[in-house]
Amino acid sequence: MKRLLPKLGNTLQNRLVVATTVPLLVLTVVLTSVTMLERDKAITERLQQSGRSIALYLASVSDFALYSANKPLLNSLLTATDRLDGVSGVTFLNASREVVISTLPADHDPGKTSEPSGQAAERSAPANLSTPDKYLYFEEPVLALDLYIEDYGSAAVEDDSQLVGWVIVAIDPAVSQSERRAMLINGVGLAAGVMVMAIIMSYLLGRNIIGPIKKLTNTVNRIEGGDFSVRAESAPSYEFNVLAHGINHMAESIEENQVRLQQEVEGATHQLEVTLADLQSKNDELEIARQHADEANAAKTDFLARMSHELRTPLTSVRGFIGLLQSADLGSSEQQYCKIIDQAAQLLLQLIDDILEFSRLQAGAVELEELPIDFYRCLEDPIQLLAPMAHDKNLELILDIEPDVPLALVANSRRLRQIIFNLVSNSIKFTESGWVLVRVFLLADEADHCRVGITIKDTGIGISEEQKKHIFEAFTQADISISRRFGGTGLGLSIVNGLVDMMGGSISVDSPEGKGSTFKVVLPLKKQQALFSDQHLSSGLQPRGKQALNIALYDPDQASRQALEHLLTRITNSVESYGDIGALKSGLKTTQASVILLNGASVTLANPRAYPLLLEYIRQCTDLPLVITLPLKQLQKSSSIANDPSLQPASFIGKPVSIDSLKALFIDADKVVDSGTVANLSGVNVLVAEDNDFSQLLIKTMLDRAGCRYCLVGNGREAVEMSTREQFDVLLVDGHMPELDGWEALREIRALTNPNHGTPAIFLTADVLAQGASLPAGVGINRVMHKPFEEADLINAISKLAGKELSGKAKTSAIWQRIPKEKFFSEVESLLDKADQENQRGNTAELGEIVHQLLGIVGVFKVNMLHQLSEALHLAAKAGDHSQVNIAIADLSIRLAELKREVS
Amino acid sequence: MNGFAGVLQNMESKIALTLVRCALQGLILFACVFLGDRGFAANEVHVLLSNDAPYYHQVAKVFTAQLKAQQPATEVRSIIMSDGVALPEILGQQIIAIGSEATTEALANYPQSDILSLLMPMAAWQDINKNTSIEGRFAAVVIDQPFERAVLLGLLLKPDARRFGAVFGPATQTTKTASLERVSSLGVELITASLPPTDNPISTLSPIINASEVFIAVPDRAVFNRNIAKWILHLSYREKIPVIGFSASYTKAGALASIYSSPTDIGRHGAELFVELSAHASDNAGKSWRAYYPKYYTLSINGDVARILNINLPPREDLYGMYQKLLQAM
Fold this sequence. Notes:
Chain A is α/β, with parallel strands linked by helices. Chain A is built from 29 helices and 22 strands.
């Protein structure tokens, strides 16, 4: 059936036939059934009515015959009745229900089984008797009705009937069977006839309707096939005529449109061909323009390289000679002039560096060399450098590195520091009061890489929504007034954005205006396969005195307390943290701490006068050693407190607290702080190719100080010639030289015939776009050093390339281990004198060197107070704050004298 | 058919009017001669109706009208009996009881009054007279017709008939002999039989009707009449024997003709009789106080039956005239 139905319904005509026939079929069947049932019912009723009527008739006419038992008369009635269809017999009973006469067979005589006469008399209503046999019986009482023949009297109210007997009529239902059969045949035949007629009419009707549709469909198909000349024929009905007319009209329209479109396409094709020819011509022009642009770009790059070189070269000379000049015996005024010149030169250099850095980023010339780094130091170093700047503005600078942040990573250390430096300095610049919080946290940690988030949050002036849109654009600051007020080129954040982008990270800023700003940097960083040993320094290291290192931390400021907790977690597992003095007092009663670390910065910044009282209070509670963190300025101002005997034992460390200062304070190990001592390069032979006389003099001076041997030439040609005559350990080649520049010279030296073809080379250039990879390839190692360079960097680079170990630490360490206490004191005093002299001279570089040496000596002997004061001196010297340097030197001298007295 | 009935009715009315006119003239003369000094005109007459049936009212109405015409001074008061209502005390001495029930009640309640009963069967009169003794006088105008009137009507309609059948019931057994005597002079053979109420009437009726040329239906008790009337008509119809009935209903039921007295006839005869009896107030023996067959009668003819029986009927007025002549001739 399911298969048949789709077949029936696959054509419109079949569907039409089905749609008209099926309901008609159902209707016909239903109507025929209902009609036949009704007719059957009518036949039955008619049969019963007939039987009842015959019985009634006989009852009414037989009263006399039955009353008089007149059998001939009854017989005549029977004879007349027998002629009626269906009457199978009649029985007359008298009033006693005795059969008077009957034409029924004896075995069908109902009078024999009828009730007695007494009961029969009560039966007055007509009734039909259904007996088990095949007949239907209808029984009626025969009543003799009296006549009203009295004109007067009350006869009407009296009973006027008299039962004289019964008549029973037997009707054979079979008489209706033939009628039923005929009715059935007629009904079914009529229904079938109607159905056949309906199907035929449906078919014919469908054909009449479908025929024109088929023709129209064929016409549409031919039109669809592209034959627009075909036209629909007229149909017999109005609707189809309208449809045919519409199709014809549509075909005409399509044909017209086709012709028109074809013409338009041809026109458009022609126009397209012309346009293509024009485009080809334009492309040719563009190609030429692109070549011109490339050439212009190359020229620009060359110009930038030359300009950077040409700008930085004299600046390098200026700064170098200023350094040398400051080393000379000058008066204080001259020293001050030198300092101003040096600061101006530094500023100019920074400006040039920013511009060139931005240009490099714009040109895509920056390549990130990824090396194993100490992530902690990459973050800590810029913070340490910027701390004095923050403290000068009474800002709290907090570095909070969460404990789960891995430290042994692979990245470009310089660029990472640059990002942190730029962002933090930016925040400090735009923050007048409050704090700057650098928070570093782990976002995702995988086996070989991780995603680190760095937020720099401040309480500064904030950035408006409009300003945020352009915050990372070059040469953009919040507005001109800000530029005037805070200075800067507006390139810092743009450079950061470029660097972060290069590192595959992202940077965003969230800053409700007036409520500070938060810069968030997310960086994907590779992990080192060999982990740094000091990732968690507490393991394997013993605290001084071989006691367990338990630290109680008190810091009322939540952010800095959390940062210190994270830092302390890296050197010990036992840190008790207190946020208010009451809790500290309670905690000290049961504490296992061996030392109390007191972050005094927030206390003193908030209320300096309360600070001594706090210390005194704590000392009254406990005699445990106190370690107090303070900014350098506060450290020096608090020297009277520090020297208070009632507070002892107590130590002071500068802020921001570095991991080195903590290690020096708490870890009893035979280590010295990196002194920064210039390595001994004796025995190292260096070829120096530099055309600039001042640069030659600077390099010569540096190399002399390092104690190495060198050969100076003025251009590339001479360098090549010299390289053929003598074997050097390191080649130091300037990029821009007359006759033969450094690049060409190095390329010729890398020729296999040259004895120095494998000698490592340092390519000196002020061109920030230059990279080592662009240098001539060969067996020798190439390294690029941008001008201006630091003396230490140069010497370190030479020592590394020459295969010389950085022996400074080891030698220094070995020497100092053998120095007796008296020697130590005399050496420190000597260094302090030198530092004082250098400070008076304004010789920052020498001062820095001396301070580095001092830090190393003090670090070796682990004299906490001296070490912290030396840290303060180091930071002050690094910041170039001569007044602070003087204070720090004075504090160190006093503390040294006290120490000598204690030792003696 | 209707035309013929109308003619008969007109004829009947004219005969009645003539008789009434003669009777009135006689009564007036009689009253002037004999009752002038008795002052009956000032009497009060109470008419007691058996019930509220129209024919009782018709009798009372005609009686009152007729009496007023003859005795304008007589005050007529009508009382209609009803179930459960006691009859009032009647001060007057003359009571006209219409119907058997009224007669019975009047006799029972006013035994000292003179009671004239109208519209009651002869059999009932005989029963009352037999079983009741009263101080007052008692007369009646019955509804029965003299047997000979029916025979004469049969002869009028079927002049060649000589065998007249009749079946007497239990109530008419007492009048059977007298009836037979009165028709013996008519020269017809009267074939009769008695029919007990319990017998099958067919077996009794059938031979009588078969042997008769005209069958006279004798009025007996009402139930008896109804029981046999159907079979009489049935058998006579089968044998084509004309039946002379005793009521208009009989004629309608299938009798060829009937002779009977209508309420008008009875009321009129009653009033005349009352005047007459009042005139014989001194008849203490009460000879005048007896049952009277109605003086006035009405003939009814069933034209359909006559046509079936092939009997040609004369016009109605002629029929009355001819019938009157026969009566006078007898």
